[in-house]
């Protein structure tokens, strides 16, 4: 697991192409341009700007030169909130090995120690039991259900929300 780099544009585009069907039920509808290197180069540049501004931590999971997943700490808010959102996915070929759980546990520690956050929030589709188990194993607790929370796979869908308090 490491910070995304500009050189990751092609491997990241390849990972999304390879996992297109695997990720489709869990992500927004993607147009054809999304799967191009140019699109990912633009996104990486924007993510690194957000990182430089202290508002995000965009990470990739890599196996050699191949990208096999992502973990992102998004929407970091400072002040009295000290909170952020967590998102992640793992390549279909690497699923079921504990990679997502290990990555989320590691990011919890980064959020606590390096980012000095108080809280992380994550949401899953209500029927995404595998992702819910990842969060539970990483110490997250359910805080509720948000109706029609995000437009995923072309439909506004309910999400189960989780949080992890990082400092008592």
Automatic annotation (TrEMBL):
Residues 14-161 form the N-acetyltransferase domain. The keyword Nucleotide-binding does not apply. The lineage of its organism: Bacteria, Bacillati, Actinomycetota, Actinomycetes, Micrococcales. One of its GO terms (cellular component) is cytoplasm. Belongs to the acetyltransferase family. RimJ subfamily. GO terms for molecular function: protein-N-terminal-alanine acetyltransferase activity. Keywords: Acyltransferase, Transferase. This is GNAT family N-acetyltransferase. InterPro entries: Acyl_CoA_acyltransferase, GNAT_dom, N-acetyltransferase. It comes from Agromyces tardus. The keyword S-adenosyl-L-methionine does not apply.
